[in-house]
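thought: fold this chain, then report.
action: predict
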Amino acid sequence: MTQPSAPGRGSPAASAAQPALRRVVPRWPILGMALNDVVGSGVYLLPAAAAALLGPASLWAVFLAGAAVLLIVLCFAEASSRFDQPGSAYLYARTAFGGLAGTEVGLMSWLTRVASIASLSAGFAQAVSYLWPGAAEGWWRAAVIALPLTALTAVNVVGVAAGVSAAMALLAGKLLPLLFFLAAGLPRARWETFAAQPEGEGRIGEAALLLLFAYAGFENTPAAAGEYRNPRRDVPFALMANIVIVTLLYAGTQWVALGVLPSASSSDTPLADAAERFAGRWAGVLMTVGAGLSILGTNSNSVLTGPRYLLALARDGVGPAALAAVHPRFRTPVTAILLQGAITLPLALTGTFTGLAALSVVARLASYLATAAAVPVLRRKLGDRPGTLRLPLGPAIPLAAAAVTLALAASATGRHLLTAGLVLLAGALLHLLRRR
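observation:
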């Protein structure tokens, strides 16, 4: 089994002659990227879907889900404070448990990105079809999926600074409609309308996975740590600030949608329908445009962070050495970026939004469980350095986070668990065939 490299240093597999990644991203853009990765299509679809499953109790479920995810976020915050290299959960698992565990987690983390990009690309065509029905099928659907994905891939090839700039612009485009929705809708939301929502179907497990999908994405914030100026300080800050902001944002949109729109659970576009109800047709169009930009923003982050998992794996001998190559001019992992684009595009063209989204949720659980389990081990192996974040209550928070993850895994379908198992088997084979 390969030995993990020291924290804060690259793998021995990375040659000294290899061009280095540029550390150009400061604190606030890191927080913006974290928000961009989490606040995706889920916030625009969450009110109806959660209300259909839980009824008026969906508002309180949003808070409970935020508290549960906070346990996992805290584990990522402590682990990330010990490293300044790319890889996120892959790096933590490899350092704590060795090469095989790292390979499995790294591959599952990358699969999460691929499934997420493909699902959101398919969802983008679905969102555009509300304004332009021709985008729902045929060559026009293929163009609506392929053109944005190709453009985001090209932007991220040019450089991480360009990728971050694109992500920040898309973040503004997605947040402004949501802030309008809250500012204009909160005074008009009524408790009577909220309480009169039909009772949900009571499918707790399905609701839990839905809420996890809405909160997921935070785990990618440390993935590009090799290009952050001060990742050991800024990544934990971004992770914890992100979960607080997102929980308040989701709770607010849930309250307005259910407090303004009777029977919100039956709406395909709950935020657009609620906005049209209290501000007119133009507001509904604004929210639909916001939904499209929201999807593109999340995809922008995934296109940026996903190849960093391949880079970290390849530097440790897993997969072709070309995936570890950094372009001498752009200082980005160009081969890894292009490979990811070549895989996600056909998946997006042939798959469905819901099926690929569910797969991305199940794949995420591997990185959550591995990071929660790694925290106590990293404490023993690495000790504390100046600036290291150490969670209180000893092992209690990592154990609680692991319990939450296992409970979510129990809610997954057999088909998705089988797919995850096959990926883990492929990871074991890749580890056996790794380059020395």
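thought: worth noting. Confidence is low (pLDDT under 50) at residues 1-16.
final: tokens above.
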